Here is the input.
Amino acid sequence: MGDLNLFWILLPPVRMAGLITTKPFLTAMNNPGAGTVGTIVAIYNLGCFFGCVVSSIIGFKIGRRRTIMLGCWVNVVGTLIQALAFGVPQLIVGRIVTGIATGLITSSIPIWISETSPASERGGLVAGQLAIVSLGITIADGIDFGMNYIVGSQAAWRFPIAFQCTFALLTLSTVHFLPESPRWLYAVGRTDEADEVLTRLKDLPFDNVDVKAERTEILSAIEYEKTVPKMGIRNILRGKGELKIMRRIMTGFACQWWQQFTGIGVVIGYLPLVITNLLGLSETLALGLGLVSAVVYTIASIPPIFFVDRIGRRKGLMLGSTAMAVCWVAFVALITQTQSKACLYAAVVMIYLFQIAFAFSWLSIPWIYPSEITPLAVRHVGAAVGTSAEWLSAFLIAEVTPLALKNVGWKFFLVFAVMCVAGIPLVYFFFPETAGLSLEAIDLMYASGRLTGGIEEQREQAGRRHEMLEKQAKAAVHVEYARRRD
Here is the structure.
């Protein structure tokens, strides 16, 4: 699945953090005010939301791979509209189109990874994708910083936007060589293709016991989902059925919604603006510190690849929330000391530490979670709803940040400190642990467990039941082999 990294790299260049303060951009957009700048930045996230809605409608019909390819083509169109814009309306249209592309893809890639990965590696692989996002942020900030020295040229902001087409086209040229999700293929009745993909993914012959066991488990889960009440909108909203679909979708929604309220959107989207407006530093220095921030973020996003499946989802989120809350409180305490340059630079360091804490926890897990906890038949809906929460909350944060920085200043960051603290009980009481469980075992956990009390015991029971079913499937394979030999 490594070729998908190309698209995750192209996502960050659409952000406007390093462009909205440059004179060529402001001149081309007729010197927009703080409210207009907020809309220009935020409207992209609204487009992402609409992309998630489209994905929830067509994602299961056309498959994971085709949804991603469609998103790449839409991205190329939106990028060209932005790069050729000569006014705010055209730029906004381009950012909406690009956002739709991002929504299509960001709600599909985590599903694709989850459905093609071993349970023990699922979280690490998604974390790897998010590490590539961080690398993309570094590339974007490096381009923005370098183009800042092209004084008076429109290329200073048009080229960074147009550059993302490169990654969309590279992804389109490689995605054809990647397999479709075997679980989706089984679900739509393309059994022969699914069998071939499953053997390729496991690198084992079709008659291998492990392949047969996993095939039996997937098909059993699909058959079980067919026995429960029809998964229509009415039943989902009412929360009927053993699968507890509404509970699972809302858990994914809450997880990704909360991610943006940790304050990461302000850091990634507006750090140069924060540094120039609140710290009083120069535009060039602000871009330089933003580039350092991106490098720190990229490096910090690598370790979770190796430990996110070991430490678990719940513990990672709660520890991350605690560390981020401490960082925001320290940042506010330092930024109020406006007479001390040392304190202001220390405040920037606290931003870096906040990014490290976020990268270790809330960066990857909210992207892993929605695709893990929803059943196959509505997994595209669960992922789309979770991702739409991400983009809706990002839209809200991006829209209000310029005005908040202008009107309330450092007090704005106290909101994020409070939200980080509030995230701890949210995770503890409502988010079950899913690390190490197969997608089918997670179905069993929700079918047999409760929302709060005893969730760990329920998880263990689901795991034991899953192991029992797996042993039964392997035993059935051995019986079939013995019968054939006789």
